[in-house]
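[09:14] KT: can someone run the structure on this one? pasting the chain below
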Amino acid sequence: MIKQNHNKLKQPQPYRAFTLLEVVIALAITSISLLALLRLHIVSAALADTAELTSQAVLIGEGKIAETLTEDYPDIDVTSGIVQHGSTSFQWRREITEAYLTQFGNLNPDLLKNGIRKISVSIKWKTGLGYKYFDMSTYVADRTLK
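[09:31] RB: done, structure tokens below
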């Protein structure tokens, strides 16, 4: 008896691969995601720069107040100047005024003097198209009053 070999010829398996359309769609999604991440990075860098400049303004203001507090009882005065930090110029203004007790209404200001002076420092710097401002103040008492 003759044995017949009924083995079918095996057909080659089709390759499993991505089509060109699938690759293009994947690249489009990836590029949109990367653009969003790039925008986020730019915003983050701008916020970090703003935080650095604001911190520098605070340090300048604290320094001007500390300079004033080294005096026993500062005279009423207005001074100003410019501090350069990198490429940014900070304009500062320090004003020392008499602090009045305003809770007594419209009395003569000489009667309201209480031996307390207000020290105000304003700092201004240019950012982009405009200016940023930072104000701080403190009070100092005349230590010779009892």
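[09:33] KT: thanks! The chain has one domain: 20-141.
[09:34] RB: yep, looked fine to me
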